[in-house]
Amino acid sequence: MYKRILVPLDGSGLAERALQHAVDIARAFDGHLDLVRVVPVATLQVARAGDISDLESEVAEALEYLTGLQGRLSEEGLDVSYRVRQGDVAEEILEEARDCHSDIVVMCSHGRSGIARWVYGSIADRVLRYGLSSVPAILVISSSANA
Fold first, then answer.
1. CA–CA gap between residue 136 and residue 59 (Å, rounded)
2. Residues 6+ apart with CB under 8 A from 108
3. In sequence order, which residues have a C-beta less than 8 Å from that of residue 8 and are 6 or more positions away?
4. pLDDT: is 30 or 114 the higher one?
5. Measured between alpha carbons, how far apart are the two ends of the chain, in Å?
6. Among 90, 85, 72, which residue's Cα sits nearest to residue 36?
7. What DSSP designation does 29 have?
8. Chain-centre distance of CA 128, in angstroms?
9. Which stretch of DSSP H or E encloses residue 38?
10. How far apart are CA 128 and CA 28, in angstroms?
11. Which of 26, 32, 77, 100 sits 20 to 30 Å CA-CA off 45?
């Protein structure tokens, strides 16, 4: 049923809380994990302003992070691939879901509410509201107080 499981990650332990849920789904359905990390727009804007080293550094860090996760998960017998994307985080997650024909998206929300959610926005909220009409999603709610 869920053969392609997309897991957006930002490199934080908080975001990785969704990973175990995705692993459980992959094992239950003999599925494939697609890990994605997006280098955000702000880094791209800095690069366009002439400091390309920030962008290269973030992309290299994202690749190292995802390569490490892929290695660990592959050793556990899971089928895993990864991709680093650049741009608006929510838009790139949605694009990745389309590109890899995801059957489900498993992601974490940082659990912000009220003014913090308004100020920082919610990547998970944008992904769920504006693009996953045909793809089910599991949203793992976490707060930094519990990290």
1. 28
2. 14, 15, 16, 17, 18, 124, 139, 140, 141, 142
3. 15, 36, 37, 38, 89, 93, 96, 105, 107, 123, 127
4. 30
5. 31
6. 85
7. H
8. 13
9. strand 32-40
10. 24
11. 100
- CATH numbers and ranges of domains, the chain: 4-146 (3.40.50.620)
* CA–CA separation, 109 and 146 (whole Å): 13
The pLDDT tens digits of the residues spanning 55-77 come to: 788 899 999 999 999 999 999 99
Concatenated DSSP letters for 92-108? HHHHHHHHTT-SEEEEE
Instruction: Give the span between the Cα atoms of 29 and 65, in whole angstroms.
Output: 26
Cβ–Cβ < 8 Å for 3, 100: no
Choose among 136, 105, 88: nearest CA to 35: 105
pTM of the model: 0.82
Joined tokens for residue 106 = 């498993």
Token look-up 């302003």 returns: 49
C-alpha 54/C-alpha 63 separation (Å) is: 14
Q: 41 forms bridges with which residues in the sheet?
A: none
